[in-house]
Each structure stands twice: as structure tokens, then as C-alpha cells.
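WARN no homologs supplied; continuing
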Amino acid sequence: MIQVGYFPCQQDPPNAQHIDRLWKEVIVEAGPAERAGFYSCLFSEHHQQPDGYLPNPLMLAGLVGAATQRIRVGTCVLLLPLYHPVHVAEDAAVIDVATGGRLILGVGVGYQQPDFDAFGVPFAARIGRCEEGIEILRRAWTGERFSFEGRHFQIGSVQVTPRPVQQPRPPIWMAAWTPPGLRRAARIADAWLTDPLQSLPVIQRFAGIYRKEAEKLGCPSSVALMRDVWVAPTRSGAQAESDPIMYTHRFYFPLRSLRRGRSVPPRCAVRGGMDVRARREGPVRHRYPRGVSRRDPPLVRGDSSRLPDPPYAPSRRPSARTRRGGDPAVRGQGAAAPVTRKRK
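OK structure emitted
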């Protein structure tokens, strides 16, 4: 069974001038999303960005959970290496209890150096901290007293309370966009959470890597697919309304090439805003930067598995503000994601 979730806008470009209104609108939008039958409403995390990008997804998930009755709430993703896992276990358990067992905890290792610098967490330690963190979460949510001795965390005889409502525990989804990350998700998480940038052929190849590893380990597999969607009465209206927010994808295309020491192909040197070049690939639409051709691999085909992680977004932002408001079923930026499909 396919379930469709809602991933609302979480920043106010260029300078967070109306971020207070954004958070209020996000909480209000969860109500229509719930009534429309959306499965989940999830939030991600970045830090110290000029547009006010959400720095605390668990907190906002709890606020949305308090304002709703049925829709699942959670993170997509929480940067687990930045936190002490016992603290995350406690906060997540409180939200799960308060919402009657509706929490989904999506986690990622992170890819932006500034997210780590502000907290004094070594960027090179992010994978180990994430893996140990997930193991600690699993033990903490049993409600039993436990100890842990790892490279990054040492915990002596603790018992995390309250115990989550969901048993044996809330689901843990893990983001990945490289083969090692896909295998890691199969090994230590309940689902693989895709990114919204890859083309569907790449997603299919990645899903094959993930499912093959899960099968080898004897684990069930589940894919949470992220796709960018902008809903409006007309295509021209969708393009006009979505152009300002599409700056968030600008740097993924040219800067990935620059970090490989290559020059950016002229067609990929995106200047100004973004364009909506929608094409059908199954039930979802893809967007392309202005001037980018489908024949420009790997930038357009979206295969990032062989490329370095992108740097943080550039400081220059389009001057136009993003238009927001209204029922998310009618208008708004978000992802028709995660779309989950389980396979046992």
C-alpha cells in the first residue's frame, strides 16, 4: 500500500523576514492535510541559514502533533550526529506518547559542514555517531535499564522514560544517497528515505542496492520516496509561484561539478531563479534548472553516488519572497513524500 505524506516549506527566503508567520501557517496547514487524508507531516533540519531554515524538527513535529488527531508527525530528517542520543530518545518518546503513537523518526548523517561547526561536532565523525546513536535509541526505547560503550558515546546504566506508545518502538527511517549509505540504511533502519533530487532511474537503481542488502541481512525493506511538488490551478501559475523557493536546489547542480574540479557546462550555469521544467516519470513530476538539458549526465540525471556531498547553500538568494498560504491541497510548496512502499 502506498501512503502519501506532506513535507511543508521550512524556510523563508531570503532573510526570514516572516518566519513567525511561516511556522504558524505550517501548523495550520497540517489540519487540511490531515482531513485530505495525508499520511504524515514531516520536517527537516539545518542550522545558521539566513532564510531561517528550521533548526529543530522534533519541536515542530510535536507542535503539529498537538494540533492534529490522526496524521503521523516526525522528522525527515533529524541530524542525529549533532545530538546526544539519550536526549533524542527522551524527546521522541514524549512526542510519541503525547500524540498517541504517531511519531516517525527520520535521521541522517548530515552533509553540510556549518551544521556541525556550530556545535563543535567533528564532521568526520558523523557516520560513527549516527550508527551508535541509532543503537542507543533502540536500547533506550525498550524502557529497560541499559549501558553502552562505544567510540563516541559511553553510557552507564540509564533508563529512559517515558516509554514510547509504539511497540516495539517508533519507526526509524534513514536518509541515504550513496551505495554505502543505502547499505547502512538496510542494516540499521526500518526504511530508506530518498532525497528529492535524483531521477527515477537512479532511484530505482538505489532501491535495488538497498533491497538487495536488506534481503541479504534478512531484514524487511521499505522505501520512503521524496518528490518535489507544487500544486496550482495552471502550469503557468505553478511556475510563477514556485520559482522563488526553487533556489534551494540551485547549488546542487553546478557546485557538485565544481567540487570535482570540473568546469560547469554552460547549460548548467544557473543564474537567477529556477524554472519549472516538468516531465512525467510515472506518477510524479521533475523540475529542471533553466537551461539544463536532460542529456547532461550526471547533473540532470541526478546520479550523486559518485560525487562529493554538496556544500551549504550559497548566501545569495533571489530577492522575491515565496508566496505561501491556503490549503496545502490547493497551493503550496512541499513534497508528495514520503511515499512509502513496504516489501517483506
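Residues 254-337 have pLDDT under 50 and may be disordered.
OK
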